[in-house]
Amino acid sequence: MTQLKQSAPRIGVLQAGPLNLISDVPGITVGHATHADAQIQTGVTVLRPHAGDLFQDKVPAAATVLNGFAKSIGLLQLDELGVLETPIALTNTFSVAAVAQGQVRQAIAANPEIGRLLPTVNPLVFECNDGYLNDIQAMALTEHDYLMAFDSAQQRFGQGAIGAGRGMSCFQLKGGIGSASRQTPGADPYTVGALVLANFGKLPMLTVGGHLVGPRLQAKIGGHDDSVEKGSIIILVATDAPLDSRQLRRLSLRAGVGLSRTGSVFGHGSGDVALAFSTAYTIPHLPVRKMPCVALLHDVLLDPLFQACAEAVEQAIVNALWSAESIQGRNGHWRTSIADLIPDWQQWLNTTGD
C-alpha cells in the first residue's frame, strides 16, 4: 500500500485519481521485489498494463528518448511496431539481461510455440544505475526476482526505496519509485498516470512546485559537489484515452515537461527515457482475430492529456523523493531522505533560515 512519510507538496491544478497512482488507469497493477542487505540495495519493479497475456493481447505504446545514456532492452521493436507484448520491468543497469530472460521464459511458458511456430517475444526492461548505494557488480538479481515482482503486482503499491528504486538517488538525496495520476477536465474525464524510477539530478538545481529549493538544501547539508550529472530517470505514462502509437509518442514527449520542472536539464550522463501506452484497447497477436475498430481521440483534443502528463510526472518525482527513506549502502555510502532532512516542508519553505 502507498504510504508517504509525510504529505508531499501538491503539484499542479488538475484533480488526481482516487489513489494518485498510475494504477488509477483501469487494469494497471505494479509489483516489487526488493533486496535490502548491507552492500546489496536493489530490486525489480514490474508494471502490468492488464491482467491478461500481453503477447496475445498487446497494447499500443511509444517512447521518447530524451537523453540516450541508457542500456535498456526492447526499444527498437517498440519503436517499429508500436506495441507492448510483455510487462514493463525496471531494474538496475547490470540486471537488465537477467530480468529480460525472466520475461522471455514467462512468455514461453504461456505460449510454448514462441520462437518456433510463433515469432520471438520482445522483452522490455528499463534501467538506472544504483551503483552508489548498491554493489551493482554483485549482480544479485535473478529471473526469480522478476517473477516475484510480477506475482506481487496490485493496484495499491509502495513508493520510494522499494523494488527497482531501492538503491536509487535523486538530486543527490534518496530517490526511487514515485507515482501519481491526473484527470482531464470535463464531465467524462480521461486519466493519465505516471510512474518514475528517479535516479537523476544535481541538488542545487532541485525545484519543487516552482520553488528553487536546491541551494538552501545544499547549504543545510553542507559541502559542495561539482561532479557531473550521471544519473537517469525512467518515466512510464499510461492513459485510458484511445490513442494510437503516433499520438502516444507525442504524449511521451510531454513527460519531459514534468521532468524539467523539477530542475533536470537531461544531463550528459543521464539516461532519460519516457514511454507512454494506452489501455483503451488491445491489439491481437494472431491475424485470425480482427483488429479493433477504435474511434481515436482527435489530435486537437490532446492538450488536456499533455497537461495531465506534465503534472503527473512532476508529482511522481516529488512523491518518489518524499516517499523514500534514508539509506546506508555500499561501503558506507549514505543518501538522506528529503522527508528526514525537512520534517515540516511547508514551514521550512516559508522561513528564510533552516
Automatic annotation (TrEMBL):
UniProt keyword Protease, yes or no: yes
Record protein name field: D-aminopeptidase
UniProt-recorded Gene Ontology molecular function terms: aminopeptidase activity
Family under the similarity heading: Belongs to the peptidase S58 family.
PANTHER family (UniProt xref): BLR5678 PROTEIN, D-AMINOPEPTIDASE
Pfam families referenced in this protein's UniProt entry, alphabetically: Peptidase_S58
Alphabetical UniProt keywords: Aminopeptidase, Hydrolase, Protease
